[in-house]
């Protein structure tokens, strides 16, 4: 099974520049060993179970909790049985149909 | 602390009518005892911890897993310290500013 | 055709209480005449075309733009041909399967 | 101004493999000339106005409309005044704080 979870999570009480806090969350994800990709809008992780994916969301909040009174998060899940390595394969599948794309 | 979590979760391999599956998820939420509201676009739950809120998302997937090879979910979290009963209070706060609204 | 669009939109540089700004957006939606429901996590509108639905998102940003240097928005669309009045009907459809629910 | 808009849009009545349809949407975006990045969970575009960004969402639906009775979309917007090229710069800003990341 392939669980793709994409999320953004940020404090909403820290002004318009929050990369310091987001950096701490990404650092935790890097150190966790989970497969991930950083994008301009969030982080995509791939795990084998939904439990592992949601645990990363939970830990991300725990990173931000000491700093902030209010935290917002937007999350998308795409869970598919019988697949793996979709962090790479979904883009390749599109490229096999329409040629090279920016990624 | 008030954790508001709104989510939609549905199989994407079951055609355009999925209310049978969604109904089973809502039934589980009803029986869980968590505070919730059904909307036309998903379900909003309110819990005191992020752990409880993410556990409902996890259980929702477990309801759908036997039926479907592919499940999609969109989730938003609004976590705020020092507040409670925001399922009701956020709408009342808007109404205190601009008068009656549809809800 | 029924276009359901749910969205939250808020400044992220105005501290943890943003109901003043959100109130102005809801006021604009009320006055627009579009079918809508306010929830604890955002606003759901129903229109007959995607053009009308996206125009409300655009106008919402124009309401916030003078106040804020940074605005975040999370939006979900559920577009279905051959249906109408889904702001009410989707909840009724669930209730017809599992009985009364909170909404 | 920098408008980052990330979105996924797909038919929900076409079974579990929808890359054919998603490919047509990406093809339209490629040909549009807008700055974009494909990810495993969607497409991120960057424009100078919200009007241009929402026009791409609108055109994406028009690509899918002939094929599908039901289309779902999840969209996030991050709009920030006084910035540009954030498709690249947001990732670099994180890397300047915590070192190299996967992207």
- Spatial order of strands in the largest sheet of chain A: 2-3-1-4
The helix count of chain A comes to 3
Tell me the overall shape of chain A: globular
Number of strands of chain A: 4
Query: Order of helices and strands of chain A, N to C?
Result: EHEEHEH
- In whole angstroms, the N-to-C terminal distance of chain A is 24 Å
Question: At the third CATH level, what is the topology name of chain A?
Answer: Alpha-Beta Plaits
Structural class of chain A: alpha+beta
Low confidence ranges of chain A: none
Mean pLDDT of chain A: 96
Pair with the most extensive interface? A-D, 36 and 37 residues
CATH class call of chain A: Alpha Beta
Q: Quote the beta fraction of chain A.
A: 25-35%
Oligomer: homotetramer
Report on the biggest sheet of chain A: 4 strands, antiparallel
The percent of residues in helical segments of chain A reads 40-55%
């Amino acid at each position: 099974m392939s669980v793709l979870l994409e999320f953004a999570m940020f404090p909403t009480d820290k002004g318009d520049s929050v990369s310091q806090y987001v950096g701490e969350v990404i650092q935790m994800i890097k150190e966790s060993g989970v497969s991930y990709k950083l994008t301009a809008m969030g982080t995509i992780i791939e795990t084998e179970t939904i439990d592992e994916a949601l645990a990363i969301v939970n830990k991300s909040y725990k990173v931000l909790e000491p700093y902030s009174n209010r935290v917002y998060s937007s999350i998308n899940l795409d869970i598919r049985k019988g697949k793996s390595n979709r962090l790479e394969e979904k883009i390749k599948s599109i490229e096999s149909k329409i040629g090279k794309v920016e990624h």
